[in-house]
Amino acid sequence: MDDVPPEEGSAISSVAIRLDDVSKRFEGSENEAVSSLSLDIDAGSIVVFIGPSGCGKTTTLRMINRLIEPTSGSISINGEDITQRPVSDLRREIGYVIQQVGLFPHQTIAGNIATVPRMLGWDKERISSRIEELAELVGLEVAMLSRFPDELSGGQQQRVGVARALAADPPVLLMDEPFGAVDPIVRGRLQDELLELQATVAKTIVLVTHDIDEALKVGDRIALLNVGGILEQYSSADELLASPANDFVAEFVGQDRSMKRLQLKTVADLAFERGPVVSFDESTAAALAMAERYSTEWVGVTTGEQFAGWVQVDDLDAAGSLESAPRSVPAARVHPHSTLRSAMEIIMTSHTSVAVIDDGGSFGGVITLEMIRSSLDDVEAS
Ligand SMILES: Nc1ncnc2c1ncn2[C@@H]1O[C@H](COP(=O)(O)OP(=O)(O)O)[C@@H](O)[C@H]1O
Ligand SMILES: [Mg+2]
Question: In sequence order, what E strands does 54-178 have?
Answer without folding.
Answer: 72-77, 80-81, 94-97, 172-176
